[in-house]
Amino acid sequence: MARLRTVCRRLVSSRTCTRADAATLAAALLFGFVAVAQAQQPSPSPSGLGRAPTPAELRAWDISIGPEGAELPPGSGNAAQGEVVYMQRGCAGCHGPAGTEGPAPALVGAKPTMSTNYFPIEYWPFAPSIWDYINRAMPYDRPGNLTANEVYAVMAFLLNRNGIIREGEVMDANSLRNVQMPHRVDYKGPIRWTPDTERGFKILP
Ligand code: HEC
User: Fold this and answer.
1) What pLDDT digit, counting tens, does each position of 57-109 carry?
2) Whose CA, among 6, 74, 114, 136, lies 20 to 30 Å from 65?
């Protein structure tokens, strides 16, 4: 502090340099040092802002599973194990004990409605997409807490109750990818985009 006062006096050439002045000056000097130190490090982006994510941070975000299921993680489960998960992890509390009662959308045997844009899982074209949805979004009040085995098991339970797979079938990365969803043939993917593709709307002058 004594040294700061000296600097303070020299800078403002005043004998009445207060504690507040010294504190402001200390903060300014510290900020200057940090700015210089940062400027000397290689810049992570053109703007110099932010930093590259760590491998652990990337892993935590990198959870998307494509419709073909290429990214599905190791793990497995059957319908009997899935029923336990369904009860213990609170799915039954929102979707109903049989998956039909609600109040949340029915997971078993429902019909699509155009008014709510809701597609029961029987109508999803790809089973890995349901795995991805449950893994990232359910349980609704505590998402992201299921293990891979639990998601495979609850998938086996739901697919079995919807009449899509047999009772004892084990779901894992390989079998889930090969599940034939009953409405797969009705699904038409988005058209492939090229620079010549017409816009779906016109820009008015
Ligand atoms: C707190 C209530 C709640 C709990 C607990 C919960 N869900 Fe849900 N779930 C919802 C709601 C609400 C939706 C609809 C969300 C939306 O459309 O944005 C939903 C949607 C879903 C869907 C998508 C249905 C479709 O066809 O679009 C699946 C699959 C699903 N939940 C599975 C589960 C499983 C498995 C569990 C247990 C691990 C679970 N949910 C626990 C409330 C809940």
Assistant:
1) 998 888 999 999 999 999 999 999 999 999 999 999 999 999 999 899 999 98
2) 114
Neighbours of 1 (CB within 10 A): 10
110 lines ligand 1 (CB under 6 A): no
Among all chains, which residue has been given the structure tokens 């507040």? 20
Amino acid present at 11: L
- Report whether 5 contacts 23 (CB < 8 A): no
Place of tokens 């959308």: 105
> What rounded mean pLDDT belongs to the chain?
82
Mutate to test the pocket of ligand 1, among 140, 154, 160, 161 (most ligand atoms within 8 A of CB): 140
25 lines ligand 1 (CB under 6 A): no
**What residue's CA is closest to ligand 1, atom 6?**
139
Task: Find the 25 Cα to ligand 1 centroid distance in Å.
Answer: 56
Give the fold, CATH level 3, of 65-186.
Cytochrome Bc1 Complex; Chain D, domain 2 (1.10.760)
How far apart CA 12 and CA 73 sit, in angstroms, is 65
Predicted TM-score (pTM) of the model is: 0.75
| pLDDT confidence band for 158 (50 / 70 / 90) | very high
pLDDT in the model for residue 42? 52
